Description:
The chain contains eight helices and 14 strands. The protein has helices spanning 88-98, 127-145, 151-165, 224-229, 237-257, 260-279, 290-306, 329-340, and strands at residues 18-32, 37-38, 42-43, 47-65, 74-79, 82-83, 108-116, 177-180, 194-196, 209-213, 311-314, 320-324, 349-353, 359-361. Bound molecules: (3R)-3-hydroxy-3-methyl-5-(phosphonooxy)pentanoic acid (PMV).
Amino acid sequence: MIESDFILNDFETSKVSNGSVTWKTPSNIALVKYWGKQDPQIPENASISFTLDACFTLTTLEYKKLDKNSKSFNFDIYFEGEKKEDFKPKIQQFFERIEQYVPFLKDFDFVIKSRNSFPHSSGIASSASGMSALALCVMSLERELNPSISEEYFNKKASFLARLGSGSACRSIEGKLIVWGNHSDIEGSSNLFGVKFPYKIHKNFKNYHDTILLVDEGEKQVSSTVGHQLMYNHPFAKQRFQQANHNISKISEVFQNGDLNEFITIVESEALSLHAMMMTSNPYFILMKPNTLKIINKIWEFRGETNSNICFTLDAGANVHVLFPEAEKESVNNFIINELIQYCQENHYICDRIGNGAKRLSNN
Ligand code: PMV
């Protein structure tokens, strides 16, 4: 599919006067990372993520048809019950980017009410779940105006719109493993939207766990927007994009053959390569904290001693995602509680696992 396939042409706004829709949308954690992009939010390499379950955003979009034509977007945003003027520029920019595909936006007055299952300041990226939730709400309104769209088109376009809000958000529509970015080894993959991993996933990855250790709950010093920009003219950019695409080929095999040793090698190398890009940018920066490294070393020690398949990955921050198979949940949970929690801010951590994607909730 190409961009123009996502433009809504035939619609009749008089069909709808007012209403509301609510979506619960998960966060996701990339295993092969996206870091570096071209306009408009086109990734430099393919990425793959586990859709999460416990970390989600709940967004209600209330809409009311305006009597007169409006030249501007009309919306208010509430986050966790409070009106948030400072969230407006991001939503305004999102609406500007998606308007050509959903040309009915200016015909409505919107109230957006959103909340996260995880603390806002936890350092967990809320843009993936937040933007995908809003994109799904907008798509539900599109479906009111044009009920003939298929489920497949609905999900693809929701992912396409979410991508324009935040790249990684396009991987937060469906479960359980999502690929975003053109790749010859992944059938149906696209730079424009995320697709479900198209091959059979080995049982070793069923119910895979992701316990998120909150090492640093503060705001990030360097936003991912700035980080992506620093990949322009980065001395290692070309090699990095090649490495990531090569890792997609390898991890695609791993998801089919269940080789957990190879999984660990790819995933940990990806996490450290992402942070290596940050440390070698101009200007350079470090998002890991001393406790991030302490946790990584403890994980390596534990793996060496017990032959566990525990491993880690990192987002663009100091928090550590501890990944492990369902079969090891008791031993790894004990290890986390006894050895790792001490390195978390106020002992905070979140037990999450691979999930099934976004869900529309009834508004009653
Ligand atoms: O979606 P953005 O622009 O916030 O970028 C996300 C980048 C990483 O989380 C570091 C990697 C990824 O693929 O999710």
